[in-house]
Every structure is written in structure tokens, then in C-alpha cells.
Write a structure and sequence with these properties.
4 helices; Methane Monooxygenase Hydroxylase, Chain G, domain 1; mainly alpha; 114 residues
């Protein structure tokens, strides 16, 4: 195997590694169906962990990636972060709506009704 073949193989393996964490994070955010359970499941803490793992890989490989690898990792992290923020906002909105609904459903104090 030539040095060029080795480099191409390693670049493909790096892309596959990044995609593994990307897919995991997307599943954990509820954006993709879990292929094992066939359900859409959300665990934002786990999604954050997967994103953090990619950030760690980015930090540890700084100045050691090809331009293609660097751009792919940066783009993947950008997309994951935007999706994560969107999901956190959705969760906060749902909690607020649930809280507002509970407040509306609470029996009113008789003294307040007068």
C-alpha cells in the first residue's frame, strides 16, 4: 500500500468516525429513528456528550487534518450545534407550556374569585 493509499484510507476512516458521532447525536436529539428500537428517542444529555466528543477530537487533531477533514468536521459540528440549540429551545418551550397549562388547570382560590 502506498503512502497516498494509506492517507486516503485514513481520511475515509476519519470521516466515518465523525459520521458515527454525528448519527448518534442526531438519534439522541430525536432527529433520527433508533435503528435497534425503531423508535424516535430523545436524550439531550447524551446528544451533548456526542457533540463534546467531536469537539474533543477537533481539539486533539488540530493542525493534523487535511483541509477536507477539517472542513467536514467543522461543518458537522456547526450543524449538530444548531440542531442541539433548536432541540433545547423546543424542550424549554414545552416545559413552559406544560407549566402554564398546570397553572390554568389549578383550582382557583375561592377568595381570589370574589
Amino acid at each position: 500500500m502506498t503512502q497516498d493509499d494509506t492517507r486516503k484510507k485514513e481520511e475515509l476512516q476519519f470521516v466515518q468516525l465523525v459520521m458515527m458521532f454525528q448519527t448518534a447525536a442526531m438519534q439522541q436529539m430525536g432527529k433520527l429513528q433508533n435503528p435497534i428500537t425503531k423508535k424516535v428517542e430523545r436524550d439531550l444529555d447524551q446528544a451533548r456528550f456526542s457533540i463534546d466528543m467531536l469537539e474533543m477530537i477537533q481539539n486533539k487533531t488540530k493542525n493534523n487534518l487535511s483541509e477536507n477533514e477539517k472542513k467536514f468536521l467543522e461543518h458537522t459540528l456547526f450543524e449538530l450545534r444548531m440542531n442541539y440549540v433548536d432541540e433545547v429551545k423546543k424542550e424549554e418551550q414545552k416545559k413552559k407550556e406544560d407549566s402554564d397549562k398546570k397553572e390554568q388547570d389549578k383550582p382557583k382560590d375561592k377568595n381570589q374569585a370574589k
